[in-house]
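Dear support,

We are seeing what looks like truncated structure output for some complexes. This example has two components. We would appreciate it if you could run it in full and send us the complete token output so we can diff it against ours.
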Amino acid sequence: MPMFVSMPEFQFPVPEPLAVPGAFYARAMAWSTSAAWFVLNLQSRSPEGAHDTLLLAWDTDVADVIRSADAALESLFFVAPQRFGRRRGWFTKQIVEVWEATDPSEADSRCILMVADDGQEHSGFFMERAAGLKRTRLVARTLPQAGKGKLHA
Amino acid sequence: MRDASIPMLLTVASAKLQMPTEFSPSPGDFWRSVECLGSGFFVVLMTSETFESEQPRAVVMCWDSDIVHFIESPTMAATVCALHHFKAIREPAGHRHLVREVSEIWRGVDAAAGDCEVIIFKTTDGSSFCGPESIPVPNSVRVDSLLAVVQVQPVSSGDRSIDAQRSGVDRQ
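Here is the complete output from our reference environment:
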């Protein structure tokens, strides 16, 4: 199951009066599987316009957080493993739209469909290219970014 | 403590997953979401003989010194297979997010800061930065020694990791 794993040796000692009750503060956290995970940036609609960066393990949580937060979708990336012939690599892609969708090849089961900045559709455990999914409802589009949100290779 | 300038990861109780003991051999806890405090963080894919398997493990790290510790610690002696830095740049004119792929890690000394040690990251596009906030390398920094070269990991036989599709922003 895709999850972030906290390591006790990397706990950051935050004094209790300053800490969020029940929270765990860390300098580092491991990732449990080879599945894709997500980096979500939100901009609050409050007058302060606070920004939040969240790392999320599940695509359904990405959609739930966007729907429930009083915030605009600033940017979204997925991070996934990748193979280049006989070598193992790493893969980051920027998402511009998040959709609820159904998969006709799986008895119309519900899923999350993400549209990347190059127009490709991605879905599933590894965020592989999706084909044949039926979009049912738009969850969110990202805000236009200054400097086109350029990724540096 | 959410408005901290210290780079940290924060998890709250509602994001914790309760796992049966037999599925959680390590002493850590499991979480479905993590909040990043600070504007940047590293994602490191690495191997180490102390890991349970030969497969690379992904670790989200806030501090550059922790990456160095994983590499140089005699116990871990980790080999970095991929290293990305994520940074949010927020300006009055708008915002943008950078993902940089690191190819080499160097150690240097900053003469303007009492010869304190600096970790320098060279990226695949030829630029360099230092620190978790990825600031440009100051002119006062003298680059001393190569700490590590990012080594893309050969795939072992029987490995079932995916052949993902390449695009203009893929990383190796």
